[in-house]
Amino acid sequence: MNRMDKITSVYLCATIGGMLFGYDTAIVNGGLVQMSEHFGFHLESWISGLVVSIGVFASFFGAILTGYLSNTHGRRKSMHYASIFFILSSIVAAVAWNMQTVYFSRVLFGLSIGCVSVVVPIYLSEISPAKTRGKIITINNIALTCGQVLASVVAYSFIHLSSGVGWRFMFGLGAIPAILQLWLLARLPETPRWLRQNDRRQEAEVITKEFGLEEEEVQQSEKDQQMSFNIIRRMYSNRDIRFRLFIACGMHFFQQFAGINTVMYYSAMVLKEVGFEESTSALAWSIPLAMTNAIFTCIGLLTIDKYGRRKTCIASLTGCFVSITGVVVLAFVRVDALSSGIRAILFFCLLTMYLMFFAPGMGPVPWLVASEIFPTSYRSAGMAMGAMVNWLSNAVVSQIFPIVIGRCGVGWAFLCVDVFVLLGLAFVYFLLPETRRKTLEEISRMNLC
């Protein structure tokens, strides 16, 4: 296998993890519609929130577990474990006979998603040259958003089947890309940084040359190579690392509270609330929303390394604030001249505008920053803790959002989102450092606090 084939295999296999991430997080948007009919619960109920949030809470623990696994077993084996859990969760969901089985499948799903959310960005950041790292991490996000588009199309394709059958196909098909990833893992090397860290220097040197990495990018001090089980305590005792952790966790917190998954998980519910009366109609309009997210994530390829992380995020959050403010105004201000159909279309346009701004910036940047801001010996733990914050925040938003819509309405739900978008903008403006075109070692030497 030549060098180009090896590089292609790495990126293909790693980004399938992103596609799995996207598919399994978005398929619940359509699956809930039929599942609620089959098991007899309301879309705006706490049960809907629990179906989503139980998977997200499990992702929180999956992220914790992966911080340990990726250090002790390696990045490659961690992706292998995640693929197995993906396959199991899809099969269990497809044959679920009661809500307890659904909850169990969502726990398996969450463990795999938590693992993927940590290990894939680490893997890509450690095996990519500094000049292309931003693009490669963004490609992973593109795969994620493509998975969301695929999920929307699959959900719409099967929504016409009876409520006892369609949602089973939606969840079960998630096993296919996971099986493909398992097959590709046989061609995937371990990262040179992890190999060095575990005294496998000869293998590390071979992979460094094969993938065109600079020696400085994989070298580290003897101190950094000594892994310790009390690494969390060491992170908190080091002022610089503690501040880096605050930045990584803060970016993940504001990514979720800026509302992205209120749209990706519940767009069919929101559109149904604001005027698209039929479930099939609301779900059909979710497809262009997912496509918008994918298309504008691709734009992040052009902006994230050209303009930098800070400018991209500031522009992203500013646009999100304007669009969500429009949603809030439209929800609270009743204009008699607007029919319910026109009002629903305006809601859709504003949600589309929100995704146009969110996708290139706040979509990939929190994962990218967390994967590059820590020194090597702290990277897995730092990424895991950032992912834990991401999933915990996701779980809170996922559980509360449908309840707020059911009790208070769409306007109040999105007003809360708007407040957090503004706070996130302030966080990025005052605290986020610029890491564009720097090697991981140069970033590690930056004085951030």
Would you kindly provide a brief summary of this structure?
The chain is mainly alpha-helical.
Overview of this structure, please?
There is one protein chain. By secondary structure, the chain is mainly α. It has a single domain, classed as Up-down Bundle (Growth Hormone, Chain: A). The protein contains 21 helices and no strands. The longest helix has 37 residues, at 3-39.
Helix content, binned percent = over 70%
Structural class, please?
A: mainly alpha
The CATH class is: Mainly Alpha
Oligomer designation: single chain
Blueprint (SSEs and pairs):
Layout: H1 3-39, H2 46-72, H3 75-94, H4 99-127, H5 133-158, H6 166-172, H7 175-184, H8 192-197, H9 201-210, H10 215-218, H11 222-225, H12 231-237, H13 239-257, H14 260-273, H15 279-303, H16 309-332, H17 340-358, H18 365-372, H19 376-408, H20 410-431, H21 440-444
Helix pairs in contact: 1-4, 1-5, 1-6, 1-7, 1-14, 2-3, 2-4, 2-19, 3-4, 3-6, 3-7, 4-5, 4-18, 4-19, 5-6, 5-15, 13-18, 13-19, 13-20, 14-15, 14-19, 15-17, 16-17, 16-20, 18-19, 19-20
